[in-house]
Here is the input.
Amino acid sequence: MGSAPSKDDDKRPTVEQPTPPAAAAAEQEDDEPDEWDKRIFSTGCAEENEKLTDCYYEKKDWRQCKEEMEMFKQCWKMQGNDKRTDSKDV
Here is the structure.
């Protein structure tokens, strides 16, 4: 059988659990663009990239994301990014 709460139970101080430093840091980091985000934004094709990655996330098959891939490729070329990512013979 359980015991009934005593009057002293109401007088106990409550202790809030502190937020772990790692969790607090993670919350702050989520608001700031990381290096990957900065690189994607600098291409001018962040929106197309997001649609492409969302498609793959939902369908788990790149072959079902041909339209999104084509839009990303067109944006990539239109922004001149194909020139900066060309392979160069060393």
Residues 46-59 form the longest helix (14 residues). Helices lie at 21-31, 35-43, 46-59, 66-78, 81-84. The mean pLDDT is 77. Residues 55 and 65 are 6 Å apart (CA to CA).
